[in-house]
Amino acid sequence: MTSELSNALNPNIAHSRSRPRNHSTYPTPVAEPQPQQSPQLVPQYVPHRSELEGAIAEPSYVRPPPLPVPPPTPSSLDDNALAQILRVLAENRAEAEKEKQRHIAWEKEQEAKYAAQRRDFEEQLTRMREELALVKGSVTAPSPTPSQFHPSAPPSGPITPVSSVPDTHLPPRGIYASPSVPIVPTPTPRSAPLTPVSQHALPPPPPQFIEGSSRYPYGSHTPSTPQSSVFLTPQLSHIPSVSNTPSPMLMAAPSPVMPVMHAPVPHALAPPSSAALSLGKRTTPPSPDSGNGSGDDSDDGNDPDPNGLLPRKRLNGHDKRCLTIQHAMRAHFLKTMKIQSDKDLPESHVEGVFLPDTAPIRFVWEKTTKQSSHNAAMKKRFLADIKAKQKRSYKYVPDRDFAQKTLDSAYEQAYTTLRQKYKAQKDAVIARNLRIKEDQKALKARRNARKKAKLIIRGEARQRLPVFSHATFNGALQPECMSSEESCDEYSDTSLPPGADPSVQVLRIRGLSWRSSRLTRLYSHLDEDEKVDRSLKAKRPQPRRERCLGPPKDGFHLPPKGVSSWMISQRWVREAREAHPDLVEILKGLVVDPPGFNWGEFDLLGLDSEDELESHGHVEIPRSEISYSLAHALAPM
After folding, report:
1. Quick check: 302 and 324 in contact, CB under 8 A?
2. In angstroms, rounded to a whole number, what is the distance separating the alpha carbons of residues 248 and 128?
3. What is the domain extent for residue 348?
4. Tens digit of pLDDT for each residue in 234-251?
5. Are 532 and 435 part of one and the same domain?
6. Minimal CA–CA distance to 411: which of 378, 437, 435, 439?
7. Alpha-carbon distance 195 to 144, whole Å?
8. CA angle, corner 571, sides to 566 and 575, nearest 5?
9. d(CA 37, CA 567)
10. Does 423 map to a domain?
11. Which of 190, 216, 238 is the last residue of a domain?
12. Residue 625, pLDDT score
């Protein structure tokens, strides 16, 4: 039984309250219906709770449902994607920068390694060149005998005699000059054999200069003199130890034969002047027979290219290709006139007579191109035809030579030559004068070709001699400094020496009077080196012509611009000032003296001029004027 308080607080208990009846509303007694009670819902199970538990029970809180998360907007999605892209780009940029720095460091390392290898190669190349120069000098010397060596300095190894025959096992000179072939220096043993390479012997004294001579230039240094054997013997007593010489460098030991040479120049070869060098194959002096013809055949494609490219070369004397625009112009004149040679030119055309386009070209030889309208029309037709046949007939001529200005100049030159030949056909006097003029032109071309060949040979010899690499020697290698080589048959008044064979042509060397003795000694050293180098090579089919020394060239000749003061003879300056008082002022504008060269430490070329030779009491060895060929063995020139 529950109490009232418990029932009042329990919401599950339904209270039934009886309402009082109002009898005043209804006066008549009516049977009162029995009220129907609503059915009570009784829970299946109600746990019993005490009043205290119900009074202090905590009210149950209902947790509100979570708010729905709003969907992401499109702007937030774009911001996230952009941030991710920027992050990826930043990472890629950082990786690329790291790779770039690593590649730069690797390139620097490779460049440093290559530079070190290059320096080592240049040092090896210099040593090999010096060894080769000593070997070349020792090959031409006779083999020494054991009695020639000093008794107080016995050799520490076997004595190797030097043979006068070139060793066929020696590699050619080209491998020392080729950068593509690695050169490994051979280590010097402790007990080295007594060979010219390990002795560091000084070279023989320079011979007296006979410029261009292919035989012994001195009378005192002919093979019959015993002085040629002093290449090895005088220096052996001054060498303290043969086994302690690590490199084939020239020793500064005193020598009774010649003073010690001190060259304050580096071993690296400085490039000489552009006119003195020819990096290609060494050209031989052309035969004078190649220039005996007229001046029209003088262009053989050997002229230097103005753009610095190598010109085309003719294969041989039978090569008739047109390599220049001048040759093509002359050949096209013969084609358009339909003649075989310019020795028989057609008759002059009559001015005003119409000439059809199908007929051969004819000219009014008495008039120039501007004086005759017919000649002007023929020129226009000629140039149009040669341009049309450029690719087919003149494919070896450079395309730049077919420019309008170049064609006009070449056309006028060829037409003027044909006019002169036509006049020579009609007049014997004009023909004789033209023949003399062509002979002089051919003579000048032959001499210039000899000068050019001599200049190329001396330039190559200077490259092999590091002692002459200073810039003060650049001015000596110019075409104007070369002496003239004149053939003895070029003058009718030249009488041959008694006993000489007239069928053998000898070139007479005529030097320039302004050249000093130092300059002639320089040429002597270069020619001597070239002669040694030529002796180690195969003989050419056509032997080199003999040379003999002649008188200086006639007339007054000034040195070219760019020469140094040591190249000019002081005696010539004093003698020429009497006739030319302004000579000193003229020479000031021509002389160029490069700095950095001390002649006090360089005595290889001797004293300054002939006056110093006389003041120091030196007697110059007389020059030999004998041709050393078999035909001129006893015929003084």
Report:
1. no
2. 9
3. 268-463
4. 333 333 333 343 343 333
5. no
6. 378
7. 10
8. 130
9. 155
10. yes
11. 238
12. 39
Residues 208 and 297 grouped into a single domain: no
Specify whether the backbone of 636 is left (phi greater than 0), alpha (psi in -120 to 50) or beta.
Answer: beta
Locus of tokens 């130092």: 518
Q: Is residue 66 part of a domain?
A: no
Condensed to tens digits (0 to 9), the pLDDT of residues 383-417 reads 999 999 888 889 899 999 999 999 999 999 999 99
Residues 500 and 620 in one domain: yes
Q: Are 318 and 468 in contact (CB under 8 A)?
A: no
Do residue 573 and residue 591 come from a single domain?
yes
CA 225 to each of CA 27, 220, 637: distance values in angstroms, whole numbers, following the listed order:
191, 7, 22
308 and 455 assigned to the same domain: yes
Which stretches of 140-194 are DSSP H helices?
Answer: 174-177
Domain boundary residue, one of 440, 463, 486? 463
Compute CA distances 66 → 61, 63, 69, 70, 73, whole Å.
15, 9, 9, 12, 21
If DSSP codes are grouped into helix, strand and coil, which group holds residue 487?
strand
233 and 279, same domain (yes or no): no
What are 24-38's pLDDT values in tens digits? 444 555 555 555 555
Residues 298 and 398 grouped into a single domain: yes
Q: How far apart are CA 393 and CA 386, in angstroms?
A: 9
The predicted model scores a pTM of 0.41
On whether the CB atoms of residues 369 and 375 are closer than 8 A, the answer is: yes
Distance in angstroms (rounded) separating the CA atoms of residues 461 and 454: 11
pLDDT in tens, 354-391: 999 899 999 999 999 999 999 999 999 999 999 998 88
Cα 535–Cα 538–Cα 542 angle in degrees, nearest 5: 95
State whether 203 and 335 are in the same domain. no
E strands in 233-299: none
Task: Evaluate whether residue 38 is within a structural domain.
Answer: no
Q: How many CA atoms lie within 13 A of 511 on its CB side?
A: 16
Residue entry with tokens 């002919």 = 222
The pLDDT confidence band at residue 491, using thresholds 50, 70 and 90, is low
| Domains of the chain: total | 3
Residue 454: name the closest of 540, 508, 546, 527 by CA.
527
Note whether 592 and 563 are within 8 A (CB).
yes
Average pLDDT of span 454-468? 89
Residue bearing tokens 């610095």: 308
How far, in Å, CA of 134 to CA of 197, rounded?
6
Is 65 domain-assigned? no
- Give me 308's structure tokens: 């610095």
- Distance, in Å, from the CA atom of 544 to the CA atom of 284, rounded to the nearest integer, reads 9
Check pLDDT > 60 for residue 430: yes
Nearest to 465 by CA among 189, 265, 179: 265
Q: From the CB of residue 528, how many other CB atoms can be counted at a distance below 10 Å?
A: 19
294-303 mean pLDDT: 42
Contacts (Cβ under 8 Å, ≥6 apart) of 282 = 456, 457, 460
* Residue 627: closest CA among 228, 214, 224: 214
Question: 124 to each of 118, 129, 181, 216, 268, how far by Cα in Å?
Answer: 10, 9, 12, 33, 12
Q: What is residue 508's three-state secondary structure?
A: strand
